[in-house]
């Protein structure tokens, strides 16, 4: 038994955080329609951002360059969501045809989270 199962529904604990537990092959209580597993998937995400600086032409001309730009870029920098366990709100159990049993469908909460990527760049025009 996991620690979250200690606060499970029983007749003496009707306001528990976790539903009633059962033992058996079918586990009928877990197959009953319930809102327990539903979550609000509203979110805000900063997908891409880039901050750069172009050196003044007076400096680049001295080095016989047309343009020099330095930048930092990032992807998946911030996600604001109330979803539990780090689940990605952009994933779904369904594919584009709403077929739950499709082999190519994503599985919410059962894959790695979206990676945060940082990169530094230098653009030089001769």
Structure description:
By secondary structure, this protein is mainly beta. Helix content is 8%, strand content 29%. It has helices at residues 28-31, 57-62; strands spanning 43-54, 67-81, 117-125. The chain has a three-stranded antiparallel β-sheet with strand order 1-2-3. The longest helix has 6 residues, at 57-62. The radius of gyration is 25 Å and the shape is rod-shaped. The termini are far apart.
Strand and helix layout:
Elements: H1 28-31, E1 43-54, H2 57-62, E2 67-81, E3 117-125
Give short descriptive properties of this protein:
single chain; 126 residues; mainly beta; 3-stranded antiparallel sheet; 3 strands; rod-shaped
Cα end-to-end separation: 67 Å
Beta percentage is 25-35%
Give a short account of the largest sheet: 3 strands, antiparallel
Number-wise, the strands total: 3
**Rg (CA only):** 25 Å
The low-pLDDT segments are none
User: Could you spell the SSE succession in H and E letters?
Assistant: HEHEE
Overall pLDDT score = 80
- Helicity range of the residues? under 10%
Number of helices: 2
Q: Which structural class should the secondary elements be placed in?
A: mainly beta
Overall spatial form: rod-shaped
The neighbouring-strand order within the major sheet is 1-2-3
